[in-house]
């Protein structure tokens, strides 16, 4: 029995408010407590894993810092805040530290840079600020460093943690700028996305013009050495030559703009697409920022081949925006390209933009990447979804035809599409309430209102109905069910989006597309089916129930394969442990949660034939929701957290 470690753990728990789910009993060995693992001789605590148990507030000094033999510390997905105590530097044997998804703040915890045995450090999705320290170079064994979704600022120092052995690295969505050190250029662009002004491989190269006029010394404290040296070498003559060159280019651009604008005003009534919107935007003095600007500037289209001026009427006909019958919009491609646009997100199939047209209409434009088909195939695909693999324009258009006719309240309607050799655009309604993913996992920390049980159930039933309609009435496989593809309608119902794009990408794009939602057989067959949709939907239900994100990317040491995790917990008869801590505050919902858990587990059966069809899933889910209503038609308890819950959930036989 590790007496000293036990005292440290009890001190920690007594000082940190938490959801009452740990039941650490002071009279039993700490080695038997939930989340605690000891060494084989039971003489010290080896690992402490307390993910998602509702820990709140700061980590107190003099508690965890006393667990000097600790190898693994996981406090992720809680609501811990404030700075980490400096005595964590005592934990010199720590190998894995997972503190992601909290509200921790302050500068980079220097105590952690002293833990020379660290192999994996995850501080992502917190509120850390200030620079990334050079002292990370102390961590010579590091293989994974995750700092994304914080507010780290300044430039990235010349770090090479792990002595070159770093395998995973992410600093996206911070406030970093300056050039990327060569030691980190092997990581993908996504590892650096969403920062202020980073440059250099794998991002576009740093230009001396970009770096030298730093917005303020505090923003770029250390301009990259290479750039400094280069700029010193710029001789006066060269500077003059560049200035003259720039003036000349500016003059030519002006002439070009004037010509374009004149042509446009003469041709406007013909309502033909003309893909020179960026020029118009430039004339209006707007900037081409990466995250917001005019749609035409965001890289959506620029091919001069598509410009009607060079191609005549046939070309114009071929490149028009095709609307579906019964639609509510009346704008043309030119209007769309002039719309102001903002990046909503980058997914596996392309990038989505929120576009606000000049007349005030807001739509979502999805710019598809790497479509494996020509126009004929694209069009055909819109009509015979599922029958074609690599498709051309015809298939694309046919597929669009099918998708455009789906017509169901629980499916986000596709309103129009555009196909040219270089660009494939899809136009959808904009749903401002956002996605289930954002509601479940977004803005953790202070001020967040968790999604209550009634809403979770309603959204899930809506999504199930939408998917069942796709399967039964349209014979369409969705192929990419996940929480960011379940959007909320104005009535807060769940709606399925991103429908049926699979066949446009061939099999090459499949492996990484659906990450933790992917059915096991899809790994081999690379082919989505009705039953693989059911599996993905089951994972989605588990996500709703557990509040955990099925994130394949971080699978390795700590990522969660939700079906397997739930199965292991349920097998040990800890059903209550499975549920999202945010749901534990509602009363009288345990029975319904267990029922939904049973449905979810039947959906994630390994053998596809053992999974139910979506119409069965809908029926069973509707049975739960019928039991949910009271005489007034609304169940009271779920929305009233003040009533609390004892957290005791019946361990009803859930067969994995
Ligand atoms: N019609 C819409 N209205 C509002 N938000 C949307 C709409 N369509 C997509 N979004 C949001 O925009 C973001 C990007 O969506 P997108 O579909 O491009 O990527 P994804 O869902 O993350 O991945 P994938 O491409 O694999 O579906 C997501 O957060 C999504 O919820």
From TrEMBL:
<dbReference type="InterPro" id="IPR001245">
    <property type="entry name" value="Ser-Thr/Tyr_kinase_cat_dom"/>
</dbReference>
<feature type="compositionally biased region" description="Basic and acidic residues">
    <location>
        <begin position="619"/>
        <end position="643"/>
    </location>
</feature>
<dbReference type="Pfam" id="PF00560">
    <property type="entry name" value="LRR_1"/>
</dbReference>
<feature type="transmembrane region" description="Helical">
    <location>
        <begin position="238"/>
        <end position="261"/>
    </location>
</feature>
<dbReference type="GO" id="GO:0005524">
    <property type="term" value="F:ATP binding"/>
</dbReference>
<keyword id="KW-0433">Leucine-rich repeat</keyword>
<keyword id="KW-1133">Transmembrane helix</keyword>
<dbReference type="Pfam" id="PF08263">
    <property type="entry name" value="LRRNT_2"/>
</dbReference>
<dbReference type="InterPro" id="IPR001611">
    <property type="entry name" value="Leu-rich_rpt"/>
</dbReference>
<feature type="region of interest" description="Disordered">
    <location>
        <begin position="619"/>
        <end position="656"/>
    </location>
</feature>
<keyword id="KW-0472">Membrane</keyword>
<dbReference type="InterPro" id="IPR013210">
    <property type="entry name" value="LRR_N_plant-typ"/>
</dbReference>
<dbReference type="GO" id="GO:0016020">
    <property type="term" value="C:membrane"/>
</dbReference>
<keyword id="KW-0547">Nucleotide-binding</keyword>
<dbReference type="Pfam" id="PF07714">
    <property type="entry name" value="PK_Tyr_Ser-Thr"/>
</dbReference>
<feature type="compositionally biased region" description="Polar residues">
    <location>
        <begin position="645"/>
        <end position="656"/>
    </location>
</feature>
<feature type="domain" description="Protein kinase">
    <location>
        <begin position="338"/>
        <end position="624"/>
    </location>
</feature>
<dbReference type="GO" id="GO:0004672">
    <property type="term" value="F:protein kinase activity"/>
</dbReference>
<dbReference type="InterPro" id="IPR050994">
    <property type="entry name" value="At_inactive_RLKs"/>
</dbReference>
<dbReference type="InterPro" id="IPR000719">
    <property type="entry name" value="Prot_kinase_dom"/>
</dbReference>
<dbReference type="InterPro" id="IPR011009">
    <property type="entry name" value="Kinase-like_dom_sf"/>
</dbReference>
<keyword id="KW-0677">Repeat</keyword>
<keyword id="KW-0812">Transmembrane</keyword>
<keyword id="KW-0067">ATP-binding</keyword>
<protein>
    <recommendedName>
        <fullName>Protein kinase domain-containing protein</fullName>
    </recommendedName>
</protein>
<keyword id="KW-0732">Signal</keyword>
<dbReference type="InterPro" id="IPR032675">
    <property type="entry name" value="LRR_dom_sf"/>
</dbReference>
């Amino acid at each position: 029995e590790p007496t000293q470690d036990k005292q440290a753990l009890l001190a920690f728990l007594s000082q940190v408010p938490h959801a009452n789910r740990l039941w650490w009993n002071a009279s039993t060995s700490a080695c038997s407590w939930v989340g605690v693992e000891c060494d084989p001789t039971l003489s010290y605590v080896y690992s402490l894993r307390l993910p998602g148990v509702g820990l709140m507030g700061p980590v107190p000094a003099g508690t965890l810092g006393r667990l000097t033999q600790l190898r693994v510390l996981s406090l992720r997905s809680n609501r811990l805040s404030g700075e980490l105590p400096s005595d964590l530097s005592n934990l010199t044997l720590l190998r894995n530290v997972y503190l992601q998804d909290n509200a921790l703040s302050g500068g980079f915890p220097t105590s952690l840079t002293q833990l020379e045995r660290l192999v994996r450090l995850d501080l992502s999705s917190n509120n850390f600020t200030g620079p990334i320290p050079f002292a990370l170079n102390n961590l010579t064994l590091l293989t994974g460093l995750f700092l994304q979704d914080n507010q780290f600022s300044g430039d990235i120092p010349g770090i090479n943690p792990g002595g070159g052995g770093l395998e995973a690295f992410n600093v996206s969505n911070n406030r970093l700028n300056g050039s990327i050190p060569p030691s980190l250029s092997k990581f993908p662009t996504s590892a650096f996305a969403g920062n202020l002004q980073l440059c250099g491989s794998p991002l576009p190269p740093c230009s001396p013009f970009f770096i030298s006029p730093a917005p303020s010394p505090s923003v770029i404290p250390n301009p990259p050495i290479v750039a400094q040296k280069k700029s010193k070498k710029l001789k006066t003559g060269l500077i003059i030559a560049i200035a003259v060159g720039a003036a000349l280019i500016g003059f030519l651009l002006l002439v070009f703009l004037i010509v374009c604008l004149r042509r446009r005003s003469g041709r406007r009534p013909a309502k033909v697409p003309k893909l020179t919107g960026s020029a118009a935007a430039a004339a209006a003095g707007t900037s081409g920022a990466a995250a917001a600007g005019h749609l035409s500037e965001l890289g959506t289209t620029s091919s001069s081949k598509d410009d009607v001026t060079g191609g005549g009427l046939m070309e114009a006909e071929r490149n028009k925006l095709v609307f579906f019958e019964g639609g509510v919009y009346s704008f043309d491609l030119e209007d769309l390209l002039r719309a102001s646009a903002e990046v909503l997100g980058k997914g596996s199939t392309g990038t989505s933009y929120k576009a606000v047209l000049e007349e005030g209409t807001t739509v979502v434009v999805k710019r598809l990447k790497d479509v494996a088909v020509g126009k004929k195939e694209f069009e055909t695909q819109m009509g015979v979804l599922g029958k074609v693999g690599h498709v051309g324009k015809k298939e694309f258009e046919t597929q669009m035809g099918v998708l455009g006719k789906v017509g169901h309240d629980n499916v986000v309607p596709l309103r129009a599409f555009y196909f040219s050799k270089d660009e494939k655009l899809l136009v959808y309604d904009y749903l401002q309430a956002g996605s289930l993913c954002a509601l479940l996992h977004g803005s953790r920390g202070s001020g967040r209102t968790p999604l209550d049980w009634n809403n979770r159930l309603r959204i899930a039933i809506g999504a199930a109905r939408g998917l069942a309609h796709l399967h039964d009435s349209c014979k369409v496989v969705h192929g990419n069910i996940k929480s960011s593809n379940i959007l909320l309608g104005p009535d807060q119902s769940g709606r399925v989006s991103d429908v049926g794009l699979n066949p446009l990408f061939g099999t090459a794009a499949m492996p990484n597309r659906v990450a933790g939602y992917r059915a096991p057989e899809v790994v081999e067959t690379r082919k989505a089916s009705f039953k693989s949709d059911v599996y993905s939907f089951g994972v989605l239900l588990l996500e709703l129930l557990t509040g955990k994100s099925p994130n394949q990317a971080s699978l390795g040491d700590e990522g969660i394969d939700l079906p397997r995790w739930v199965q292991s917990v349920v097998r040990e008869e800890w059903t209550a442990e499975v549920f999202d801590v945010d749901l534990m505050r509602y009363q009288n919902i345990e029975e319904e949660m267990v029922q939904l858990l049973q449905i979810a587990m039947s959906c994630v059966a390994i053998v596809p034939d053992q999974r139910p069809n979506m119409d069965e899933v809908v029926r069973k889910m509707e049975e739960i929701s019928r039991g949910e209503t009271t005489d007034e038609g609304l169940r009271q308890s779920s929305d009233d957290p003040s009533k609390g819950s004892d957290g005791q959930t019946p361990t009803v036989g859930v067969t994995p």
